[in-house]
Design brief:
Radius of gyration of chain A: 17 Å
CATH superfamily of chain A: Molybdopterin biosynthesis MoaE subunit
Structural class of chain B: alpha+beta
Shape of chain B: globular
Structural class of chain A: alpha+beta
Distance between the termini of chain B: 37 Å
Order of helices and strands of chain A: EHEEEHEEEHEEE
Number of domains of chain B: 1
Number of strands of chain A: 10
Strand content of chain A: 35-45%
Radius of gyration of chain B: 12 Å
CATH superfamily of chain B: Beta-grasp domain
Shape of chain A: elongated
Order of helices and strands of chain B: EHEHHEEE
Number of helices of chain A: 3
CATH architecture of chain A: Alpha-Beta Complex
Oligomer: heterotetramer
Strand order of the largest sheet of chain B: 2-1-5-3-4
CATH class of chain A: Alpha Beta
CATH topology of chain A: Aldehyde Oxidoreductase, domain 3
């Protein structure tokens, strides 16, 4: 059954895949596409020390679940699961999981791609990239704006 | 009526705070709230024109400027999402 | 580093993903697409009891490795791993893993799709589908030919 | 020279065996080997025309009909692969 939410710990992928297969093999699915996002150690030739993820809850979790449900209704799709982590994540830590099982591999790839784009562009999740050359707000799909020390900001004063 | 406004990501830095409660007259729309916020935080209006789209979520859903507000509503101002 | 071969046991996906991330996060990759194939419990409204996979070794393993190496040379790609199981596999058992990590999610999806097609169409791996309505050779991309009892065939006499 | 021929998948059923060793004259090509196999196993030629493409791998690589064979070569006859 479709599932989606904000999580704090990494997922056990063996459990995730076993659970999806158990839900779907008897219904004729044989293809599972899993996207795993993880923190890059380098961006723009600068070393990254941490990505701080913040989500607007409970709405982010609700939207993740709605997106999973929406794509699970697509032709040939049998299961969609979407989990996004929050908190301070170091390079190599996983950040996002999108799993789609379908009757055909083509459907599984297509729906995983589309669901991933919707997660990235619609769900209120934000990141601050801490690099050796400063802190950058990541805005939308990869645009970076260097953090200014705004007077009066509670975290920066 | 009272409306809670929350700021996320870079908008929190620009506003210099995480949230604020505003008093608005009955019948006010999302558009009126945004005007009031921009008058309180001119830097927010400036950045929205220059650098960063400012998007309003009304009670967690993407809002339209014509949406009417009700007492107790929560409006979140966010830049384009950057999950992943 | 690119890897590919025929395997007999299922993979530990946590280990696989951790190993790929370890190889790639420092080099700027943040996207991993993993395809997992598994045995369908139903095909053409008939219940499947088993898929028997046979590979022409050592050539199948060599080709899997070559395909992984070839796609790892693609723009933006940092790691490709391809593993295909053989033997008698029951519904829900995993059969094939294709993992691609890349700098962008678009590259990771695209290359995983292409590598998967090449695995399916080029590597000498064959399957016999055992169903409640008989045994079917699967030929190419999903064509099924009912097994005839050929006189003199060593397995059938 | 001796050439080992192996049959896979449905072709093993049609030939009724897993492999055979054939003696061919020096200079023989893959094309000649296939002709000899088809004369020994006419059902193989029949199925290749009717139902199933028959593909020859020469020492594990996709072969061409013009490829010259050498003593000890192994030819595998396979239908289109069905991995996955």
């Amino acid at each position: 059954m479709a599932d989606g939410r904000i999580i704090e710990k990494p997922l056990d992928l063996n459990e995730l895949v076993a659970s999806i297969i158990e839900d779907t093999a008897e219904k004729g699915a044989g293809a599972l596409v899993l996207f795993v996002g993880y923190v890059k150690g380098r961006v723009d030739d600068s070393e990254v020390s941490e990505l701080d993820y913040e989500a607007y809850e409970p709405h982010a979790s609700r939207m993740l679940k709605e997106i999973a449900e929406k794509y699970e209704r697509r032709e040939g799709v049998l299961n969609v699961r979407i989990y996004h982590r929050v908190g301070n994540l170091k390079p190599g830590e996983t950040t996002l999981y999108v799993a789609v099982s379908a009757k055909s591999r083509h459907q599984a790839f297509q729906v995983a791609k589309e669901a991933l784009e919707e997660v990235k562009h619609r769900v209120p999740i934000f990141k601050l990239e801490k690099r050796e050359d400063g802190e950058y707000w990541v805005i939308g799909n990869g645009r970076r704006i260097k953090r200014r020390k705004a007077p009066g900001s509670p975290e920066q004063s | 009526m009272k409306i809670k406004v929350r700021f996320f990501s870079i908008l929190k830095d620009v506003a210099g705070r995480e949230s604020i409660e505003l008093e608005l007259p009955e019948g006010a729309k999302l558009r009126d709230l945004l005007e009031k916020i921009y008058s309180l935080y001119p830097d927010l209006e400036k950045i929205s024109g220059e650098e960063v789209g400012v998007i309003a979520l009304l009670n967690g859903s993407y809002g339209k400027l014509d949406n009417e507000l009700r007492d107790g509503d929560e409006v979140a101002l966010i830049p384009p999402a950057s999950g992943g």
